[in-house]
Write a structure and sequence with these properties.
Elements (H helix, E strand, L loop, with lengths): L11 H19 L11 E6 L5 H12 L3 E6 L11 H8 L5 E5 L3 H9 L5 E3 L7 H13 L7 E5 L4 H13 L2 E5 L8 H14 L2 E5 L2 H5 L4 E4 L11 H7 L7 H6 L5 E4 L11 H6 L1 H24 L2
Parallel strand pairs: 1-2, 1-3, 3-4, 5-6, 5-8, 6-7, 8-9
Helix pairs in contact: 1-12, 2-12, 3-4, 5-12, 6-7
Bound molecules: phosphoric acid mono(formamide)ester and norvaline.
The site of norvaline has 9 residues, from helix 6.
């Protein structure tokens, strides 16, 4: 049985296999001919943090596949009152067929998976957001940006950045990360990525100059400066991230037809200017829709590998 907790656990071939499946599933969905791959299965969806996209896409996704989603907020679960993750896992996974969890520490996901009888999917942790990257890569494929991509990530060294590190280092493309001083990526995750890059041929560049990162990039991406759980740091972060907004001038350094991706929610005129956001809104909202199709592929793939 496999879990989907981080792209670190997946080979290039497996990632591309899931992307191919997502393309097939999206086509079937658009034609109204999606096979009920997960007929009568139940997906438990545990949320310890807020969500719009992750909740809607998983719940609609499992429904489209012939199953049922069960929304479980930690505010309502005994988990929120201190019942251990490992007990929650041993109860819930005797009753459902698959589980998605959005939580804080990656170790909580790992703990749940250790005691789980069914495949577990990360719906984001403080360390990674792997299902988002599957949607992002699917969007790159659709916009024909998957051939020799040069991706510039400008902003906070967070769960999104770490997932980009995994995707690039597994698939073997160039990723340039620019973060302000003090907001660098996690060193252990970077080292893992550099190890994978030796095998895949990926070029990983880490620095603090956003302009340098964007020069000639084929894809520019960013994320909020204030992730969930960091609300108290907002004022300080806004000061520290001065010069890191992706605006027209920044995009002008990238290739003329460069795409701009954002996992959303976006904070206009902080990490991205209103102008850049609206100019690239087709790509951004295709990316958001692709959460639905990419995650259906992840669920079907995990079901095939149990
Ligand atoms: N991108 C993303 O995961 O969005 P939500 O927080 O709305 O789920
Ligand atoms: N880095 C953001 C991503 C939101 C989808 C956060 O963790 O809040």
């Amino acid at each position: 049985m496999r879990h989907f907790l981080t792209l670190k656990d997946f080979s290039k071939e497996e990632i591309l296999e899931i992307i191919d499946l997502a393309i097939k599933i999206k086509k079937q969905t658009k034609k109204g001919k999606l096979k009920p791959y997960l007929k009568d299965q139940t997906l438990g969806m545990i949320f310890e943090k807020s969500s719009t996209r992750t909740r809607v896409s998983f719940e609609v996704g499992i429904h489209q596949l012939g199953g049922k989603g069960l929304f479980l907020s930690s505010n309502d679960l005994q988990l929120g009152r201190g019942e251990p993750m490992k007990d929650t896992a041993r109860v819930i996974t005797r009753m459902v067929d698959m589980v998605m969890i959005r939580t804080f520490e990656q170790s909580k996901l790992e703990e749940f998976a250790k005691y789980s009888k069914v495949p577990v999917i990360s719906g984001l942790s403080d360390s990674y957001h792997p299902v988002q990257l599957m949607a992002d890569y699917l969007t790159m494929v659709e916009y024909k940006k998957d051939k020799n991509p040069v991706v510039a990530y400008v902003g906070d060294g967070n769960n999104m950045t770490h997932s980009w590190l995994m995707l690039a280092s597994k698939l073997g493309f160039e990723l340039r990360i620019a973060t302000p001083k003090g907001y660098e990526v996690d060193e252990a995750i970077l080292n893992d990525a550099l190890e994978f890059a030796k095998q895949s041929g990926a070029v990983i560049k880490v620095g603090s100059d956003p302009k340098e990162a964007c020069k000639g990039a084929t894809v520019v991406t960013t994320d909020t400066w204030v992730s969930m759980g960091q609300e108290d740091e907002k004022e300080q972060r806004v000061k520290d991230f001065a010069g890191f907004m992706v605006d027209k001038q920044m995009m002008a350094l990238a290739q003329d037809d460069a795409m701009f991706l954002h996992c959303l929610p976006a904070y206009r005129d902080y990490e991205v200017s209103e102008e850049v956001f609206e100019e690239h809104s087709d790509e951004i909202f295709d990316e958001a829709e692709n959460r639905l199709h990419a995650q259906k592929a992840v669920m079907v793939w995990l079901d095939l590998h149990r």
